[in-house]
Description:
The chain has three helices and six strands, in the order βββαβββαα. The chain is an alpha+beta fold and about 120 residues long. Its cofactor is Mg(2+). Belongs to the Nudix hydrolase family.
Amino acid sequence: MAAVVFRDAEGRLLTVRKNGTSKFMLPGGKLEPGESAAEAAVREVAEELGVRLRVEELALLGEFEGDAANEPGHLLRSTVFTWAGEVAPDAAAEIAELRWASPGEIADGAEFAPLTRECVVPAL
C-alpha cells in the first residue's frame, strides 16, 4: 500500500471514504506489479482525486503497519508520503466521500482508519 498526506492552510488532512466502507483514510492504494510505492501513490491519487503529482514531489513520511480499516483481523503495511502544496480534489473512481479533518479530530475519531489515526498522525 501507498498513501499521500495532503494538508490545507489550516493544517487539516485530506481523508477519503471508499464506496461500501465506513472509515476515512488517506488517499492511496495497492501497488501494481513492478511499481514502486511512490509510483503507486502518484497513480492512485490521480485515479481517486484527479490530482496529478510527480514522484519527485513526494517526501517520505515513513512505513507503517496497523489494523486494516475495512478488513477486521487483517494488518496493513503502507508507505506514506507527504506532499506540499494546495490541491482541489474531486472524488473519483471508488471514492464515495472526501473529508478534511484536523489531526485532533482524526486522533479522537473512530470513523478514521487505525493506520491514519494511530501511526500517521503521531508521525506528523
